[in-house]
Structure formats: structure tokens, C-alpha cells
């Protein structure tokens, strides 16, 4: 039987090629995620390409959203930051098809992929190999990598500059290596923070949320939230872009973060 790089249907994580899929997905077995009552299920890129496609949306000048429709696995969308020194894909989605490769290649390809945390690792190795670029992950989350590959670059400091005003910041929280991306050129030069769900943009845009596990409703301790705020404090940002279509805070995002952390601390103490 030909080997297949199996993909978990629940979280979208792709595994090394094998004749048969694994019995369980350790990403989903972790307390921050879940295995559904229906049990562990698997698919492949080939199967996914026959039922799904990727949609593109311009978020602001220099920033494109890329998401799979209909929604697959966790349902996040990635962000493509266009940069003179090379485009950077922030977070990742499982589906990579010919149309996506053609569109991104026409825009200049990718110089890097950078990912906030293990729930969005998905088919990162396929993306990195296809575009011939490194995939940046924080070393604190190395144990969660299920498909090792030389294309993966593990960084260990509290920040890592990718160039052209793009800086990775380790916030921790949701995962020990939980990362956000600061984009100096965002919001017309006022700065933007791309957060995945390390900082969760919630329906009430006056606040953001923080959790160790979102599906299982496990909160973070106050000191973890304080660390998130202090990690991004040196950076200016007017806007914040979360992990979902339209999960955007378009004004005063830094004050929103600070106000939300204060509210969170007060709720824990009440």
C-alpha cells in the first residue's frame, strides 16, 4: 500500500507518510484539544483537494487572509504578510493545492512560514518544502512536532526578528512557546499584532480573551496573562488580527489588550 501523509480531521495536523494512520493524534489527546465522541478520523491532502478549496481575502494593504472552504478541522485562516524582503505566511492551514501555490507564487512566493502554536502546525512541512522556505517554531513547543523535517527552524529567545519590521514574540500562555507576530508596517505604519489564538479576538471587540484550552474551557493563571501583556508591551500596535475570518480589532488594540488583562485579573479575584 502506498504511504500517505495522513491528516487528523479534528485538528488538521499532518503526520509523516505511512501505510496506515496512527491510532491516535497526540495533538488532540492533549488536554488543550479533544478527540470527538465519533473517534479519531484521518484524511489526506489528495482527498481534501477534492472536497475543499482555499479562499483569499485582502485584510489591509500588504495583508491577505487565506482560509479553507468549507471550513476544515479547527477552521483557522492563515495570514500572508507581503514584505519587500520576502512574504511571510503567519500560521498555517492544512490544505495546500495547485491554485494556492499559483497565487502565492505570483505574489512573490514565501521567504518564511511562522506559526503561533501546535494547533496550527497542520501541513507546515508541505508548505515549507513547496515554497523552499524555513518554518519558524518556538523551541519550547518542539515536543509537539509530529512530522520532523530539516526545514523546521526552532528559535529559543523571547523575540526573533524576521526582517522588514516583522518580529516573533514568545508570549506563552496557551502553549509554552505560544507566539505572536508584530508587524511594524501594519495599520499604515501604526503597527499590527498577529495573534493566532494566543490572544483571542472575541465577539466583543472591546476585549480579548486568554485560555489554556478553548474547547475545554481551561483558564490561564493571572501571571500567564501578565506575561503575555509584558511580552508585547515594548511594541506599538494599533490593530490586532486573530485566527478567524473577521476576528480583527482595528483601533486602539494595545489598550484593548491591557484593559482585557485587568478585567481577567479582577474576575479571578472576585
Description of the structure:
The protein is an alpha+beta fold and 270 residues long. The chain has a single domain, classed as Ribonuclease Z/Hydroxyacylglutathione hydrolase-like (Metallo-beta-lactamase, Chain A, 4-Layer Sandwich). Helix content is 22%, strand content 25%. The protein contains 7 helices and 17 strands. A 7-stranded mixed beta sheet has the order 3-4-5-6-7-8-9. It has a 6-stranded mixed beta sheet with strand order 10-11-12-13-16-17. Helix 6 packs antiparallel against helix 7. It is globular and about 55 Å long. The termini are far apart. The model has no long low-confidence stretch (mean pLDDT 97).
**What does the radius of gyration come to?**
18 Å
Biggest sheet strand order reads 3-4-5-6-7-8-9
- The computed structural class is alpha+beta
Shape summary: globular
Give the biggest sheet. Answer: 7 strands, mixed
Unreliable spans are none
List keywords for this structure.
six-stranded mixed sheet, alpha+beta, Metallo-beta-lactamase, Chain A, 25% strand, seven-stranded mixed sheet, 22% helix, single chain, 270 residues
Task: Describe the structure concisely.
By secondary structure, the protein is an alpha+beta fold. The protein has helices at residues 26-29, 45-51, 98-106, 124-131, 186-189, 222-232, 253-269, and strands spanning 7-8, 42-43, 53-60, 63-69, 78-81, 88-90, 112-114, 135-138, 152-155, 159-163, 166-170, 179-183, 192-196, 200-201, 208-209, 239-242, 248-249. Strand 11 (166-170) and strand 12 form a beta hairpin.
Amino acid at each position: 500500500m502506498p504511504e500517505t501523509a495522513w491528516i487528523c480531521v479534528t485538528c488538521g495536523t499532518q503526520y509523516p507518510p505511512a501505510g496506515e494512520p496512527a491510532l491516535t493524534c497526540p495533538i488532540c489527546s492533549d488536554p488543550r484539544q479533544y478527540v470527538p465522541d465519533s473517534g479519531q478520523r484521518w484524511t489526506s491532502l489528495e482527498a481534501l483537494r477534492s472536497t475543499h478549496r482555499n479562499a483569499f481575502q485582502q485584510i489591509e494593504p500588504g495583508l491577505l487572509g487565506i482560509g479553507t472552504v468549507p471550513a476544515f478541522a479547527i477552521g483557522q485562516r492563515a495570514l500572508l504578510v507581503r514584505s519587500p524582503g520576502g512574504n511571510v505566511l503567519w500560521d498555517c492551514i492544512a490544505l495546500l493545492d495547485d491554485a494556492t501555490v499559483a497565487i502565492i507564487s505570483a505574489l512573490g512566493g514565501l521567504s518564511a512560514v511562522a506559526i503561533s502554536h501546535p494547533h496550527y502546525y497542520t501541513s507546515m512541512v508541505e508548505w515549507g518544502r513547496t515554497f523552499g522556505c524555513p518554518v519558524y517554531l518556538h523551541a519550547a513547543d518542539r515536543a509537539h512536532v509530529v512530522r520532523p523535517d530539516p526545514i523546521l527552524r526552532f528559535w529559543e529567545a523571547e523575540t526573533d526578528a524576521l526582517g522588514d519590521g516583522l518580529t516573533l514574540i514568545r508570549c506563552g500562555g496557551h502553549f509554552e512557546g505560544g507566539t505572536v507576530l508584530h508587524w511594524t508596517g501594519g495599520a499604515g505604519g501604526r503597527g499590527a499584532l498577529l495573534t493566532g489564538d494566543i490572544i483571542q479576538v472575541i465577539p466583543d471587540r472591546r476585549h480579548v480573551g486568554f485560555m489554556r484550552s478553548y474547547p475545554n474551557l481551561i483558564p490561564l493563571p493571572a501571571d500567564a496573562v501578565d506575561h503575555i501583556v509584558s511580552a508585547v508591551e515594548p511594541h506599538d500596535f494599533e490593530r490586532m488580527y486573530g485566527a478567524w475570518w473577521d476576528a480583527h480589532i482595528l483601533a486602539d488594540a494595545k489598550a484593548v489588550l491591557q484593559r482585557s488583562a485587568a478585567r481577567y485579573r479582577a474576575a479571578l479575584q472576585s
